[in-house]
Write a structure and sequence with these properties.
This protein has 295 residues and is of the alpha/beta class. It has a single domain, classed as 3-Layer(aba) Sandwich (Rossmann fold). The chain is built from 9 helices and 7 strands, in the order E-H-E-H-E-H-E-H-E-H-H-E-H-H-E-H. A 7-stranded parallel β-sheet has the order 3-2-1-4-5-6-7, with helices on both faces. Strand 1, helix 1 and strand 2 form a beta-alpha-beta unit.
């Protein structure tokens, strides 16, 4: 008999803690909303009556987002958008407003990431990840904020962060630095825009395995022989659980929460062992030869 039971599993898919219709009449923009956790977040807003705008650069991701929302009877439009380009962002917001009215919730989920030792990272790789993850998040926030300030209306921004914004991210120096910037941006904008009725918060996902993980991330996760017993919760997360966190933060029941980063990971990022395992270099963990030894 084991003395560990872990955290309880979540309610079934389709369950909602908030009242039906919480987001009736609301337009919700989700960048990167056609795949993975972005799609899960968009789906939970749609279940509660929200009209969804899925923004992505890739046609196949846009189509996947459209199918996911329409399959539960939700209202959705998809829009090709490069969040590194302010004109592309403005066009997406124009289309959203024309179809559903002024977006009241913005979820900045789109990001770039891939594992690489810092010494192997090209300058272009660094610039690309920072440009999409940090600059793109700011440009979307800026467009959303400016429109609400001009209209004198309230809104809610949810930025998707990462726990290595606090801890550092060996093997992910580009993404960790960008996500640290996103965390600070969240806190700065919450103070600046609070007087105008605009909330700004972040959510940080833990391990949420899903079918849309990139091959390199999936291979890294796949190296673990048992993912459940490596989590304090004794299980990994279900994508809908992140969606529930997002719908709560933007809801009428969380209006006094702003500038906050909500970590949804079963306490995994705070885990500490009584003794440390032997140090293994990032190159070794990735199966790479010593620097300079590549043929």
């Amino acid at each position: 008999m084991t003395d560990t039971i872990g955290l309880a599993p979540p309610p079934e898919t389709g369950a909602c803690a908030l009242p039906d219709g919480t987001y009736d009449g609301a337009c919700i923009v989700v960048t990167g909303g056609g795949t993975g956790l972005g799609k899960a977040i968009a789906t939970e807003f749609a279940r509660l009556g929200g009209s969804i705008v899925v923004a992505s650069r890739k046609p196949e991701h846009l189509e996947a987002g459209r199918v996911a929302i329409e399959s539960i009877g939700g209202s959705v439009i998809v829009w090709p958008c490069d969040i590194r380009d302010d004109a592309s962002i403005a066009a997406m917001f124009d289309a959203a407003t024309e179809r559903f009215g002024m977006p009241t919730v913005l979820v900045n989920n789109a990001a770039a990431n891939f594992p690489v030792p810092a010494e192997d990272m090209s300058p272009n790789a660094w610039r690309t990840v920072v440009d999409i993850t940090l600059n793109g998040t700011f440009l979307c926030c800026r467009e959303f904020g400016r429109r609400h300030l001009l209209a004198g209306t309230r809104g809610s921004v949810i930025n998707v962060g990462a726990s290595y914004a606090w801890t550092g991210g060996p093997g992910f120096a580009h993404s960790a630095a960008a996500k640290a910037g996103v965390k600070n941006l969240t806190e700065s904008l919450a103070v600046e825009w609070g007087p105008y009725g605009i909330q700004v918060n972040s959510i940080v996902p833990g391990l949420f395995p899903h079918a849309d993980m990139t091959a390199d991330i999936r291979s890294n996760v796949g190296r673990l022989d048992d993912k459940a017993d490596r989590q304090p919760a004794m299980r990994s997360g279900q994508p809908r659980e992140l969606g529930w966190a997002a719908t709560f933060l933007a809801s009428p029941y969380a209006q006094f929460i702003s500038g906050h980063t909500l970590v949804v990971d079963g306490a995994n990022w705070q885990r500490r062992a009584l003794t440390n395992p032997p140090v293994e270099t990032i190159r070794s963990q990735m199966g790479r030869p010593p620097f300079g030894a590549e043929s």
